[in-house]
Amino acid sequence: MNHIDIDRERCKSCGLCIDVCNKHLLEFSKDLNSHGYHPVELRNPEKCSACSLCGIVCPEGGVQVYKEIRDKTR
Amino acid sequence: MTETLAFGRTPLLTHNYMHYCPGCTHGVAHRLVAEVIDEMGIQDRTIGVSPVGCAVLAYNYIDVDFIEAAHGRAPAAATGLRRTLPPDRYIFAYQGDGDLASIGMAEIVHAANRGEKLTIIFVNNAIYGMTGGQMAPTTLPGMKTTTSPGGRDVAQTGHPIRVCELLDTLVAPVFIARGSLSSAKNTIKAKKLLRQAFDLQHQGFTFVELLSTCPTGWGLSPTDSLAWLDRNMLPFFPTKTFREPGAMPEHTAAYHPDLKVRD
After folding, report:
1. Which of A28, A44, B95, B125 has a C-alpha 20 to 30 A away from that of B54?
2. What is the least distance, in Å, from the CA of A69 to any CA of chain B?
């Protein structure tokens, strides 16, 4: 399954990734990180297409995107 | 199940927590510079010059050698590095608009005019960010800042300076381009410009301007800032490549560099 790894401690709740996600999968968490920001979380990872737009716009370099390699021989 | 890393944090960005405000595109610009240096494999041969301004601590975030220059004097310090270090070194200066276009205007124009083999990265957000959002030379007409609360009055303070266009009148530069960090698409384009500039650095002076945001100074949310940049800055600061090798504009091609004064 495609998924993204968000560095919770780096996130400053700027919301640029939320705005850029075409599938609207990103939301602010209700929890706070140690700097007092609400870090962004991925909801419904099964819908993520691993397009990497969230990582490209993130000013903190806090997003890593993982893409599933499907086995086409099956 | 196997998975591959589609987008990762470049190892050239250190693990330090960035001091920039939420949504500031300095972080994106740092990442693009780090990625370009990483892709070219020149980490151990690259020296950066950091400015005075918000990016004064750039050396904490990009894992290459850095020196810190006096306000606006990054091109002069970089010239010194270029002339004393072995020629295979890559030297870049990272400057903001208050640093480069205001106090450092003489240094940048003369470094460009001498054709120093440098890459200058100019982050233009139309405001002095670090000192509290004062009017910069690049502030747009009518734009409200803390020193122009009624909007910039061009009759009193002049019009914004377009640095790329200004440097494009000189003969020596080999690459001048303006990119924008206002969207993912523009960010990808901007990275290509940075790569071109670093590739051409050993041929002459290369200059990349990156239109950037200052959500805190502009008094807008990070997402509104990007929309504001697109709506207001792009018409005044068009994103394009002004100078490329082999493509001299007419006004400089008319001047013959080989022409010399006769005895």
Report:
1. A28
2. 5
Nearest-neighbour CA in chain B from A44: distance (Å): 18
Domains and CATH numbers, chain A: 3-66 (3.30.70.20)
What pLDDT was estimated at residue B212?
95
B25 to chain A, minimum CA–CA distance in Å? Answer: 6
pLDDT at B83: 95
Q: What is the CATH number of the domain that holds B195?
A: 3.40.50.970
Q: Is B220 on the interface with A (CB under 8 A)?
A: no
Q: Which residue of A has its CA nearest to B188?
A: A56
B191 touches chain A (CB under 8 A): no
Judge whether B13 lies within some domain. no
Distances (CA, A) of A35 to A9, A26, A39, A44: 7, 20, 10, 26
In a domain, B241, yes or no: yes
Which residue reads 């810190």 in tokens?
Answer: B68
Cβ–Cβ gap B22/A62 under 8 Å = no
By Cβ distance, the residue of B13, B188, B222 closest to A15 is B222
**What CA–CA distance (Å, rounded) separates B82 from B47?**
10
Neighbours of B140 (CB within 10 A): 18
| CB A11 within 8 Å of CB A28 | no
Q: B136 Cβ partners below 8 Å, 6+ apart?
A: B97, B98, B101, B102, B126, B127, B128, B145
Q: Is the pLDDT of residue B252 over 80?
A: no
Mutate to test the interface with B, among A12, A18, A33 (most CBs of B within 10 A): A12
Answer whether A50 touches B (CB < 8 Å): yes
Report the number of distinct structural domains present in chain B.
Answer: 1
Q: Measured between alpha carbons, how far is B191 from B254 in angstroms, rounded to an integer? A: 32
**Tens of each residue's pLDDT in chain A, 74 residues:** 888 999 999 999 999 999 999 999 999 999 999 999 999 999 988 899 999 999 999 999 999 999 988 777 66
Residue among B183, B220, B228, B191 at smallest CA distance from B208: B191
